Each structure stands twice: as C-alpha cells, then as structure tokens.
C-alpha cells in the first residue's frame, strides 16, 4: 500500500521535474529568440539609418581616401548578412565591439554609465513607492471623497506632464531661483579627484567612503531628477495601490477582522495592504523598468551621464556597437524584471503556488 | 417634456427590450450615465472637445499667422494685449502657434491610434485564436518590440525614415502596437473556448470569419479604453521626439518642438517654453481623465486594470 | 480662454506636487571651485581622440594646443605671422624647397625625456605613415610613407630639415606647421606603447605608431599635461613642471562636458564653474550684465554659409544664385540670432587671415531678388529643400531664411536632422540647399580658398572633394588661380591673389556666406588673463590666474 503510494508520488515527482525542465527549456528559447530579434532589429536600423558611421571617426574634413580606408577597416564594405554574422559571433563571445565615440569597449562604457541610470531610477522608484503607496491606500479607504479625487488628479497629472518640461522648470525654480538643489550632472567637480567610485552608485559609494561632504553634494544633484522620475512612478503606483486595496477591502476576511473589533488602522495597513503587497511588488518592478528606459529625456535635461543619454548620443552618431550594446542591456533588464515579478508572484502568492 | 424624458428613460432601461437595438441603446445609456457621474471624466471629455474645436476653427481663432514673425522687431515679447502669450525666438505669436499646433497634436494622436490599434488587434486575436506556432511566433515578435526602450526605438525609426510629422507618426505607431496585441490576445484566450465560439464553429464559420466577426468585436471595448489611456503617452512621445529635434519640420508649430526652441530662453523668457508645456499637460490630462472615466464606465466592477 | 482657466485651476496642484517631491531635499552647500583649479563648462563631445596625428576636431584642438608644442606657432599679436615654438629660428633655401629649423636647446618633454630633432622627424613620420584625417596638411608638401624619412629628417641633435616638393609660399608652409598635426610627440615614450599590426594593402606598416595608446594618452611638452579624459564627461589638464617656458599659474584645468547654454549660465552664476564656453546670445547678454561676471570674445576661423547644389538645375542658374544672396535678412540675423556670437560676413575668408576681403555688398532686397528670378524665368517662384542640423543658431537662421525667401515666392522646405545625418547627405551631394559651417583646417588662406573656390575634378568619384565639389560647382579657372596663389612667395602679392579670388566668387559662387563665428566665454569675476585666441589651438590657458 505504502509502496504504491510512494511510487505514485515518485512518478508525480518525476512528472513535475520534467514539466519544470520543459518550462525552463521554453523559457530559454524565449529569451534567446527575443535577444536575437532585438539584435536583428537594432542591427537593421543601424544599417538603414542615413548616417555614415565613418564620419564619427574621421570627421567632416578628412580626405576621401582616408574615409574609404576607414570604411574598409570597420568592415562596412562587407555584405550585411556577413556583418551581422560577425557581430553576433562577437556578442556570443562577450565582445560587443568598441564604441567609436568613446574609444572604449562598449561593455566597459556600459559598466560606467549604467549604474548612473540605475541609481537614478532606483531612487525615483523609492520616492514613488514611499509617496505613492500611502496615497493609494488613502484614496481607496476614502473612495469617492475629495481625497480620492485629489489623489486621482495628482496621479493623472503625473501621467500627463512632459517630463523634460517639468525638469526644465524644476531646474529653473529649485536650482536657479531657490538654490535648494544642485545643478545638472552627478557630482561637483570639487569631488572629482577626492572621490573614487567603488560600485558606481555614488550615494552608496560616498557612504562606504564615509565622505559626508560628497554624500551631501551627490544627494543635492540626484534629488531633483529622482523626484521627477519619482513623481512619474508615483502616478502609476498610487493608481495601482488604490485598485488593489479596493479589491482587498471587499474581501470577507476584512469583514471578519472588523467583526473581531480590530482597529481600522490595523485592518488597513496590517491586513489589507499586506495582501495587496504581492501584486504591488510586480507593479513596482514594472515601474522600475519603465523608469530605466524612460530616463532618456530626463538624462538629457539633467546632463546625467547615464545609459539613456549614451544610447541617444551613439544613435545620433551611428555608433551602432554602442547602440546595440545599450539596447541589449535595457532589453535584458526588461526581460529579467518581468521574470522576477513573475517568479515573485509564484513564490509569494499562495494561490498561484503549484500544489 | 419631462414626461417624454421619463418614458424615454424607461424605454431605455426596460428589463425586457423589444429589439436588439433597444437593448444596445439601453446598455449605452447606462454606460453614459456611469460616465457622466464621474465629473472628472466629463472635464476630460470637455477638454478633448475643446481641442477638436480649436483645431477646427484655428483659422478663425488665431489672432496672427503661426508661421510669419518679425525677427528684427517683435522677438521674445512678454505677453501683452496684442500677443496674449508673447512671441517666440522668431518673433511669432505663441498663442497662434499653439492654436495651429492643436491640429498636429490631434493628427498624431488619431493617426497613431488608427494605425497601431488595428495592428495590435489583428496580431493579438490571430495569435490567441490560432495558438500553436503562429501564437509563438507572433508573441515573440511582440516581446521583441516590447523589450525595446520605446523612445529609443522611435528615435531610431525616425532617424531611419527621415524627419517629418508623418514619419514620426509611423515610428510611434510601430512602438505602440505591442501592448494592444497583448490585451487582444488575453481577451481572445478567454473567449476562444466559450460555448458561443464553439457554436459558431459548429455552424461552419471559417477561422477568418470567426476572428473578424466574432472575436475582434469582443476585444474592441477594452482596447478603446487602453488606446484612450495611451493617447496622453502618444502625445508625450511625439513631444519628446520634437524636443530631441526629430519631430515636425520647422516652422510647423509642434508643441514639443516649441518647448525645445523655448529651452534656449528658459531663464529670461520662460513663457516661450511654458506655454506649449502647459498645452501638452492640459491635453494629455484631458485624454487621461477621459480614458479613466471610460474605463470605470465600461468596466462596472471597477478596480482592476 | 479655456486654456487660461485650466492653468489657473491646476497651478496650485502642480506646485503642491512639486513641493512634496522636495520634502527630502536639503539645501546643499555650494562650494566654490578650488583656488588652484580652473573649471570650464564646454561641449566636448566632439573629442574622439587625443592623438595629435589623428585629431581634427574643435575641442581636442584646444587640449592639444595647450599640452603639446609645435615647431612654430601662430603669433597671437599678428595672426598673419608665425613665431617660434620649439624652433628657435629657421631658414628657407633660395630655391624655396628646403626649410631648416634650429631647435631651442635643453628642452624636455613632460616625461623628462629631452626634445631632439629626432623626435620632430619621427612625429612627422608617424603622421604621414598613419595617414589619418589631418595628415594631408603635411602630405600636401609631397610627403609619402616611402619618402618621409628622407624629406623630414634630423640633421644633428638640434637641427631639423624639411624638404618640400614645390617652391611654395613660405607663409603657407609655416602656417601649416602651426596646426595640431605638427605637434611634436615624445618618441621614446610613445615607442613604449606601440601595438603590432598586420600590414595590409592599405596600411603597409607593422605597428600602429602608438596611435591606440595616444588616443587617450599623452606624450607632449606643452605647459599642461593631459591627465584624464572620460568621453562626454570631462577632461583634466595638469601643470607640466618640466615645461621650459613660463609655468602656468594654475595647477589644474577641468573641462566639464555641458551642452546647454542655459545650464552653463546657471552653473556660472552659482559658481559651480569658472568659465562658460557655449553661451547663446540671450545668456551671453545676461552674463555681461551681471557685475560678478565678465565676458571675453575673439573672432574665430569658422564661417557659416548656405550652399546651393549646382546639380539642381534651378539652383544652377546664375540669377537664382544671386537672388538668394539678396534674400537673407543679414541685419536682423546679426542683431538677434547671432548677436555677440558672430559677425555678419559675406566673404569666405575669415577676418584676420592673410588676404581676407572685407566686403559686404548684399542686404535683404526682395524686389531685386524677384527681378533676378523673373530674369531666370521663375516669376512664380519654385520649391526647394534645405537640410538643417537641429541646433542653434543654424535652425533659427534657416527659419529666418525660410520666411525671407518665401517673400520672393520660393517655397523652402526645411529637413531637420542630426548633424551627422545632414552631413552624410551633403557629402553625397544629395541635398538641394545645405546650411552649415566650415572651420579652417589650418591658419592659412589656402585652406578656405581651396575648399570654396577650387574643384579639380567634378566627377562623383573624385579624389579631392572640396566644398565646391560637394555643391558640384565646376570652376577650372578659379581652381587654377587657387593653385597659383600657393606658389607666390611674395606675401603682399599672395594676399592680393586671395582677395581677387574672393571678389570673383562673391557674385557667382553657390555659397551664400552669412557670418563668421565669434567665440565667447563667460567668466567668474575672479578669473584673470583668460583670453581666447584666433584658432582653437591658440586658446591658451597658461597665463590664467584666479
């Protein structure tokens, strides 16, 4: 009896394992094809863009024979499929080529600029969550009231405002007029030689160095762009929090808790919000991905040396290695965050856990 | 009068509609009532109507030419009785440019929606209904476009296609359809195995017919909501392209390009950039309020996305 | 109006939202820049290499000009002349073919290595053999990879002999040697960093002459050393204690890459930077009115123009070319769009260069232009496109011209694009009208004369692609005159020949010259002795104090 039981269990176990293997295989196929597609599309765009990549290297005034020789050196005289093949081959070996604009390997450029973008987006998301979640909860609890309407408008304005414009106005008001924040860039030149980055996340680095003067300076630089991005994600997070909370507050367990005489504060923050936390984490992850890729304009306005600016700049110079590398990084983060929120859902939410 | 109103209402709200038309009208009426109960949504609708009106009557409303200015004598004037919102770097009246710019904004929004939504609908319903490798291939393509940073992709397409409002529209449409495909596919999956579709299949309808006549209509309402909510995003993307110098061709009064031009004078002549910025804000807010109201009205459960 | 009401309604909300964003912000401490450091904000994203044998852009010219030394340098006091750099004196043989330079004795590179004639000869050799963009400035004297060792060689420790293939005007030869491509590099140091290369048909040498290393490295002898360069971010110069001349007062120069004029002005006003380099007219005006700040300026060798492609049959008509010159509102542009950052100039040689002509016969005259168009059979006007880079002041000028030519019935469509994009089209001769700028390759009238008024071969696959070629302007007569001026050894006569060339092309050329760039800088009040030179490699920083 027990024997057959264990055998059945083992069978189920192995069935589950093979299902898992199939799922993993499918996932790998998805990631690989998405990557190849990303590569192909970017590569194609790079070749049809009517910008001569040689120009970025030799400049406008180079004699004709230098232009031709450089074209050959860059392999641009080869047929497209051959160029694509060479590129993919390099990429598979971890070689994304060299950026002609910065003369560095693309990967080392990205290692330098990506933390800047991540730091900005992270702080933006933190600000967005810190303000957005309470606002969303408040709106849900006071559904239909004036508070709810105000939160709704704050959120919708966040969706509606051109972020580059708000950035310009922000600089004008808080930097130029009020002098509350520092200007564009990540750090003051004063610190350029006393401050050595470790992780590339400057706020963290200054804490590691215990360099509080630098910390203040870095904070003063990042707070304005991060607040802008934060406002943008606040709009999204508060909206979603509201709707998740509305959903939870209608559940029976809330009624039961009320019947037990628990305080309203505890019901809302302790029970309802905890249960809404799972989908919220997904929302925050998605919002983070949006900020990462949505930072192009903010970085332009604030001269923030991040990935968005790097890609845009490279695109304008037809520096396709850099564009490809940068796009792949953002694409990977996007895929990874989607996967992460998916996994998190499974782990945290008992309803979706496989039984 | 009020009596006829009363009866008309009753007719619309009757529990036993006599005709299909009556039932439909009744449903629409209920939706409309839910919609108008939301004051903000009505404000949004009014903003959009005002935008359409301004665009239609631009020739009448604009006090000056949007293209011709006096570089030497009327440059960067502060708002006054003659130029209500001041003048720009070429000495052109900003208010007139805003008024004419509304046409471009409408054009972009409408055309992107007309191009992107059907593409998304088609891809999504076909993928959802066909399943198998068709689904896999179509969804991979969708994922690829989704994984791209949107603005960068639009930038790249504009660079490849050449500048101009038409190409900007195409570029934005190319980057906008994937979410619609996702939504349409999800909706299709929920109805694919329903008895209703099974019945239609039994009657021998071809897959093309099923997708076109029976599945697509079911996806439309959620798609309309999503498109309306996206319109603000479309406006902002178009403005972003204009801001980066790749949207409309000068001297077209595209609002994003106007901000970019005003950026040069942001410290001393702030109104040059402020006016188009507010215009974008108000119009996108209008679309967002409208979309938000539509969502609540069409989805009575409220709440979830 | 509807709009106004809405604004009023949402403004407090916006303000409230903005305020809440800043709850966590603390007022930062605004440190002044360090006393021994000069901080400049400048658009330095055109720097892609710091190798003087390869670099040919604007910002690196300034870095190289301050950190390397050449045989001879431009005389800032009189820009039609040169003075000694590393060379103490020089002589030209009677046949005009041999130039002998005596070097100043006892000079050292920043590395401590002595500067010898051998270094000079090797510097020439690597430029010619690498054959990068600016190499033609030297190879136009008949140097090739095979003969360079013979034609540019050391004759003893302190004597360098340079042999040219024709009896050029000595002013031409010497002017060319002031270019950054003539910088003397530290042979011993660079040789430590050469990388092997597999020779090909196009590149016959087995090493890169240190190019890979020198792109970001430094091997010079100027008053400053290049210490650090992070592309699109910053560049740092440091005092060279081995410099033979007057040592710089400041220990360090930091260039920060900042593109926006408004941003630069803000940073200058708050004291985050000492010098702002890309101020637009409005901001320049505000800086000059601020009593804590100052401005300085200098005319540069860069001219802005629009050009009409002669492949377009309409634009090829002489009357049309002329009509365009009467359809630019020079006065209005000069008093607004380029106020302070440029001077209207209708000849293609910049002010200050030998033989430049100060004539400005054109002004906005729509009636006259219409008359000319009617003569060309274009009474009802025509449609044409113009490729415009999306940046100021070019876009503004293009829009102004769009309006003025419109008055004469010409429908001008502006095609905006990034700089590289419009340039690609221009270089392929696919444009109708192009608006852009041209900076002199080296400080000699031949540079602009050659590109604006000579076109040796108008075929699509020509070996020499001058601006005249790009606009398909076939001018054998002017080409010959340009060539002849090169060989005129009498400076006064040479100047006259260039003036004649400019005069002849005023009416007929497809180039509508608009203005000459004035470089400006906004300074903090405590910055002293900061002067801009006539060229970018002569914006010297050594005398600056603060």
From TrEMBL, chain A:
<feature type="transmembrane region" description="Helical">
    <location>
        <begin position="322"/>
        <end position="345"/>
    </location>
</feature>
<comment type="similarity">
    <text>Belongs to the binding-protein-dependent transport system permease family.</text>
</comment>
<feature type="domain" description="ABC transmembrane type-1">
    <location>
        <begin position="114"/>
        <end position="345"/>
    </location>
</feature>
<feature type="transmembrane region" description="Helical">
    <location>
        <begin position="272"/>
        <end position="291"/>
    </location>
</feature>
<keyword id="KW-0813">Transport</keyword>
<keyword id="KW-0812">Transmembrane</keyword>
<dbReference type="Pfam" id="PF19300">
    <property type="entry name" value="BPD_transp_1_N"/>
</dbReference>
<keyword id="KW-1003">Cell membrane</keyword>
<feature type="transmembrane region" description="Helical">
    <location>
        <begin position="21"/>
        <end position="45"/>
    </location>
</feature>
<dbReference type="InterPro" id="IPR035906">
    <property type="entry name" value="MetI-like_sf"/>
</dbReference>
<dbReference type="GO" id="GO:0005886">
    <property type="term" value="C:plasma membrane"/>
</dbReference>
<feature type="transmembrane region" description="Helical">
    <location>
        <begin position="153"/>
        <end position="176"/>
    </location>
</feature>
<keyword id="KW-0472">Membrane</keyword>
<dbReference type="Pfam" id="PF00528">
    <property type="entry name" value="BPD_transp_1"/>
</dbReference>
<feature type="transmembrane region" description="Helical">
    <location>
        <begin position="120"/>
        <end position="141"/>
    </location>
</feature>
UniProtKB/TrEMBL annotation, chain B:
<dbReference type="InterPro" id="IPR035906">
    <property type="entry name" value="MetI-like_sf"/>
</dbReference>
<keyword id="KW-1003">Cell membrane</keyword>
<dbReference type="GO" id="GO:0015031">
    <property type="term" value="P:protein transport"/>
</dbReference>
<comment type="similarity">
    <text>Belongs to the binding-protein-dependent transport system permease family. OppBC subfamily.</text>
</comment>
<keyword id="KW-0653">Protein transport</keyword>
<feature type="transmembrane region" description="Helical">
    <location>
        <begin position="269"/>
        <end position="291"/>
    </location>
</feature>
<dbReference type="Pfam" id="PF00528">
    <property type="entry name" value="BPD_transp_1"/>
</dbReference>
<keyword id="KW-0812">Transmembrane</keyword>
<protein>
    <submittedName>
        <fullName>ABC transporter permease</fullName>
    </submittedName>
</protein>
<keyword id="KW-1133">Transmembrane helix</keyword>
<keyword id="KW-0472">Membrane</keyword>
<dbReference type="InterPro" id="IPR050366">
    <property type="entry name" value="BP-dependent_transpt_permease"/>
</dbReference>
<dbReference type="InterPro" id="IPR053385">
    <property type="entry name" value="ABC_transport_permease"/>
</dbReference>
<feature type="domain" description="ABC transmembrane type-1">
    <location>
        <begin position="102"/>
        <end position="291"/>
    </location>
</feature>
<keyword id="KW-0571">Peptide transport</keyword>
Automatic annotation (TrEMBL), chain C:
<dbReference type="InterPro" id="IPR000914">
    <property type="entry name" value="SBP_5_dom"/>
</dbReference>
<dbReference type="InterPro" id="IPR030678">
    <property type="entry name" value="Peptide/Ni-bd"/>
</dbReference>
<dbReference type="Pfam" id="PF00496">
    <property type="entry name" value="SBP_bac_5"/>
</dbReference>
<feature type="signal peptide">
    <location>
        <begin position="1"/>
        <end position="31"/>
    </location>
</feature>
<dbReference type="GO" id="GO:0030288">
    <property type="term" value="C:outer membrane-bounded periplasmic space"/>
</dbReference>
<dbReference type="GO" id="GO:0015833">
    <property type="term" value="P:peptide transport"/>
</dbReference>
<dbReference type="InterPro" id="IPR039424">
    <property type="entry name" value="SBP_5"/>
</dbReference>
<comment type="similarity">
    <text>Belongs to the bacterial solute-binding protein 5 family.</text>
</comment>
<feature type="domain" description="Solute-binding protein family 5">
    <location>
        <begin position="81"/>
        <end position="459"/>
    </location>
</feature>
<dbReference type="GO" id="GO:1904680">
    <property type="term" value="F:peptide transmembrane transporter activity"/>
</dbReference>
<keyword id="KW-0732">Signal</keyword>
<protein>
    <submittedName>
        <fullName>ABC transporter substrate-binding protein</fullName>
    </submittedName>
</protein>
<dbReference type="GO" id="GO:0043190">
    <property type="term" value="C:ATP-binding cassette (ABC) transporter complex"/>
</dbReference>
